[in-house]
Design goal:
single chain; Rossmann fold; 6-stranded antiparallel beta barrel; elongated; disordered C terminus
Length: 601
């Protein structure tokens, strides 16, 4: 057996000797201790042999010769007893190795198996792993895969991911800010789309950065182009919008529940259509049924009921509810919900555009949320996640959908008292049941410690990039169920674009480096038309266009000013003066202020 092969670079021992300028040792060490999971290898070095010390650096995969079997181990620690170095003599070295599995030759081809059937004996020879053995460790055995980078140990060995396994059982990308997390996600998406042309992708993009990295593959939907009719919102989602993050008044919510059901029945009758079978209250229509209705019918019904009320104590609830509805309808920021053209039954056009059915060669939707009113972000995300699951469910698995959640800890926080319950429920349902119907979840977060542990536990493939926080590292360590758990000891010191991948989507836990994307494909790197990346002077900044963007909604002109689209003005109701909302009299004392975090109730 050749125990003197290179460390995976493909070089011959002759080349090694030429570079080192001295004979290369075939035996690099011997096993002096072994238990069920780890082994200790003893060797020695002197000053003239420092070039060989690179074989024993932390993070390297090495091989132990057992005859017909080569045991594979990961170096997780090295030590010089007595912690001193002798420049003139020999220095004993202790190498601590975690055992990963075994390599056997089958018909002359190396094959890797996880687990250990034959443990190293004392005195077993340890050597650098051969390039063929290293490739065998990370071979996916014929499963459909994509190449996303190279091994950190050996750039000549490709890092491959099994696409179907990573998707079907969900995946997560975690890492602190600035380590290349978004670039890694963009790379994974590009590779996955090329391999799975049947896949549709919805990206919940809070930073408006992914569209620039997927040109030719995606469509952008923002506040100016979003059409999401209010009647697609369930009652609790609509309540979140109307109360703008405040705690709702229960009496008003119950009134709204009845009024919405009544308005749907009125619309169903007036249009002469029968959307659902009759035989139950409101013809089978409830406040959560996704069928059209008119807000004007609700306001008319409120006025009629107020006129028939004898008890004065019930009137304030109706009046306050009407004020909230009228305020939301008049707010230009909510035009994507309450525009007049959205009253008609446009569910086919709305869902088809958002979820790319048909895809028209662009299967990705980047839903840019940076300009969305903070008080409606939760509700909109809840609607989209719920619709994604329902579409996959009722298509009998024909429609394959991936919902990718950037900053996922905002939607699904570990603290159940935070966040918006319907959004958490909709995304958790995808995580728990989605794979049966072809609805998949991708989780991207910089704080896995703040993410709902139930959701992370459903992600069978995890790409862990650099994490500095101890709590975040502990969460990832608890998620790995692989014999190479010591790999995660490098989480706090990995470089740019480096990740530790483990789970069903890879053959075994591996430390890898993602491919580098071209500059023009980096997330958020695209410069708007007519602007330069570096303005050269702070005096070049014009304040007027910035203020215009703050005040108005609509499509941006080439100069950067935000203007109303003439086409949308024709189709929509005329703008009204937005009334200043005041808390109604008799409101509960101590109610939170109007300014709310977009992801907290």
């Amino acid at each position: 057996m050749d125990t003197g092969g290179s460390a995976g670079s493909g070089e011959t021992p002759v080349q090694d000797r030429r570079e080192a300028g001295q004979p290369q040792r075939r035996v690099l060490g011997h096993v002096v201790q072994c238990d069920g999971a780890r082994a200790i290898i003893a060797t020695s070095l002197n000053t003239n042999e420092l070039s060989a010390s690179g074989n024993w650096t932390v993070g390297k995969v090495i091989s132990i010769n057992l005859g017909s079997i080569r045991t594979v181990g990961l170096i997780y620690a090295i030590e010089r007893p007595q912690r001193r170095w002798d420049d003139d003599g020999s220095n004993p070295i202790m190498i601590f190795v975690e055992l990963m599995g075994e390599v056997r030759d089958e018909n002359g081809v190396p094959a890797f198996d996880r687990g250990i059937t034959e443990y190293p004996h004392l005195g077993a020879i340890a050597h650098r792993i051969r390039a063929r053995d290293l490739r065998a460790i990370y071979d996916l055995g014929g499963r459909r895969s994509v190449t996303v980078g190279n091994l950190s140990q050996d750039s000549a060995v490709e890092a491959c991911v099994a696409v179907d396994e990573a998707l079907n059982r969900h995946f997560a990308v975690v890492g602190t800010t600035g380590v290349g997390k978004s670039s890694a996600v963009s790379l994974l998406l590009r590779k996955t789309i090329a391999t799975r042309p049947d896949l549709r992708v919805l990206i919940l993009d809070p930073h408006n950065e992914f569209a620039s990295s997927l040109p030719g593959h995606c469509v952008r939907i923002d506040t100016n182009s979003l059409d999401l009719p209010f009647w697609l919102f369930r009652l609790e989602e609509l309540v979140e919008v109307l109360y703008r993050g405040r705690d709702p008044v229960l009496e008003e919510v119950e009134l709204l529940r009845d009024l919405v059901g009544h308005a749907k029945q009125v619309y169903n009758t007036s249009t002469g259509t029968s959307i659902l079978r009759r035989g139950t209250d409101h013809g089978g229509l409830t406040a959560d049924t996704p069928v059209p209705y008119r807000m004007t019918d609700i306001i008319s019904e409120i006025d009629e009921r107020i006129g028939h009320l004898d008890a004065k104590n019930e009137r304030p609830h109706y009046r306050q509810l009407r004020t909230r509805i009228e305020s939301a309808m008049a707010d230009p920021r909510y035009r994507f919900m309450f525009a007049s053209r959205l009253i008609e039954d446009s569910i086919h056009e709305t869902i088809g555009r958002i979820f790319r059915v048909p895809s028209e060669g662009r299967p990705v939707t980047c839903f840019e949320m940076a300009g969305l009113p903070s008080e409606v972000v939760n509700s909109v995300c809840s609607v989209l996640a719920r619709l994604a699951f329902d579409l996959a469910l009722w298509s009998d698995g024909k429609l394959k959908l991936l919902v990718l959640c950037e900053e996922a800890h905002r939607y699904m926080p570990a603290d159940t008292r935070l966040g918006f319950a319907p959004t958490r429920h909709a995304l958790s349902r995808i995580a728990k049941e989605g794979r049966k119907y072809g609805c998949y979840l991708g989780v991207v977060t910089q704080r896995p410690g703040d993410l709902d542990p139930t959701v992370l536990s459903q992600c069978s493939t995890i790409f862990a990039m650099r994490l500095a926080n101890e709590q975040d590292q502990a969460i990832i360590r608890s998620a790995i169920a692989d014999s190479a758990a010591s790999t995660l000891s490098f989480l706090s010191s990995m470089g740019q674009r480096e990740a530790i991948a483990f789970g069903d989507g890879v053959a075994t836990a591996m430390r890898m480096k993602f491919e580098k994307l071209p500059e023009h494909l980096l997330p958020g790197a695209k410069v708007p038309d007519g602007e330069q990346a570096d303005s050269g002077s702070i005096d070049d900044v014009e304040l007027a266009p910035i203020v215009a963007r703050m005040r108005y909604t609509g499509k941006r002109s080439r100069t950067g000013a935000s203007v109303y689209s003439a086409e949308r003005q024709k189709q929509s109701e005329p703008l009204q003066k937005v009334p200043v909302y005041e808390e109604p009299r008799g409101a509960a004392p101590g109610r939170p202020p109007s300014a709310y975090s977009p992801f907290r109730r």
